[in-house]
């Protein structure tokens, strides 16, 4: 028997006092919907991401532990580089008086599983009646340490309620994990040290990365340390120990601690597995680890990003949920790594980085933690060789960044084939890796945005100018001459339901922006740093390219608003067939359209997957009038299915700009529930990184009204009617500003030692150093 509440699987109000709006609780156990909670409740620290599968195993679970930057490619023509699923160290099997603890057997008298965002811990409380009619209380807790990036800590407390307990625990390290059937590891050494520490070594098959996994256990009975008898088992890619403590009396509690660690040869301080063992052996107990972990979250996360929302409890929880996952999925420790489209919470998109990082996630770090933002952009700088190779392979010049990225030197790693075509039954070809090229301009845009917010000249000289120039070299080689103008034909824009289109507005405008910025900074360096310009010119032939930029940028076709002020999404979109999208917009299933049509058919309809022209109006907002923005909203939003998780956040921000507070808030609500909401199948393959970043953008850039236009800071809040107060910090040119916004007042505190100038609600103001500015 399973406890179920069909109305609400997740509860958002279980936290009280200091934990109010800090907890999400799963209220019943459902073996059919394990993936949702495994991903949404996943634990991470940027080095590793651990799906929150239960200690005991179930048929439909997807266990996963992903170590950032450890990509491997399985041998085969149809395979691409992916982030391998490392050995599972969380599995624990309990036999209680002869009955195996399984929630699909016996009866669940109580169940709750809670993610505590404040402490970044997962806890589970179960009152279980076994098939033998014995009752037990089991409490599970775990965390992935933010203070020690290698460590997973687990604690299990078991109390027999009906009679004395004979316990058998089977626990260890399981290296038999795969990526949906693909095994990425060669078998390595298995060993038990001093009857305490289990070790499993593994080695990736193609990328030659060494992994060293360790686990150890400790037992206490009613606060007294005990040493159960144990037996070690080794199997192929697997090492486990069976522990059998003495009889546990009724109502006494036995507590089991399991401390595990993973180390790889990608670690900058890696020497070998023996050194890793020595480091792991010095790891303290659960309570000491938790104390350091909790302090790290408090000081480096919650004090760094103190966003407060008054008025709607769920919204406060949602922004904390976003910051929690932004922290857990970002490899802040290493600039050779980037953020996957599913973070580190699942196999979705194979751990690859997309434009999601630069356009949706990076703005959070650019304005909240510039050091991390810089490292994420340095990844793109370090991956220029792979982008150059992609350009060369496609007969272009400069740096053509891949749609999907993994290794720095990989170049393009987008799979060629995808889901089945509903009409033909054949696999659908994925064209993004070939012709979704706007990402090259997206990266250039992120570089410029970072520079404008931070003034980081050192970054520009070491990385930024080269990125702007190398991407512009690509665009000038990509443009096609047609009569007296240049065009960009045969692409996929942000709307991936339109393939092989000509003159996608977003792509053309962003390419033009990229060329203009390259011209601007070439002129600037000519005056201010001719030595650096000479060095970059020698590498990228900038003298010749500069003339091409000027000539081609001036003649690049930019689709203009028509008589109805609508910007054509591409050359043919406005002439395509229009159908009633109501059933598909209201469907709970993403991609419901493809139950009735295939992609070729959708390609001939006025149907948009996600923000396309809309995101152009957001990123380059000062190039379009309010009337043009409204006309394009009115035309395109009804035709947009929001089948991409990143779409509604963009629309919410634009709705704020257009003065429709109710619509902006409605879009925000839907965006914030993509992962956090009650749809228990929404996140099986992992959380949606772009959507998570988009939630923050809605709060700060939309409702908070923070924008950077032409290198200046603007603040024009649009507080939702349901909110009474919003507080958040931002960095501008090295100064930290704390914003407090209500319906009647705006208070801005400058905590830095220099004055800050910006435009507030259309008025230029100066907030003096170490002072507070207030307006009514």
UniProtKB/TrEMBL annotation:
Stretches assigned to the Glycoside hydrolase family 65 N-terminal domain: 25-266
Which residues belong to any copy of the Glycoside hydrolase family 65 central catalytic domain?
320-697
Q: May I ask which residue range the UniProt record assigns to the signal sequence?
A: none
Asked if the record carries the keyword RNA-binding, the reply is no
UniProt keyword Endoplasmic reticulum, yes or no: no
Q: Which residues form the Glycoside hydrolase family 65 C-terminal domain?
A: 707-767
Q: Which UniProt keywords apply?
A: Glycosyltransferase, Hydrolase, Transferase
Tell me the domain of life: Bacteria
Q: Which family does it belong to?
A: Belongs to the glycosyl hydrolase 65 family.
* Identification of the protein by name: Family 65 glycosyl hydrolase
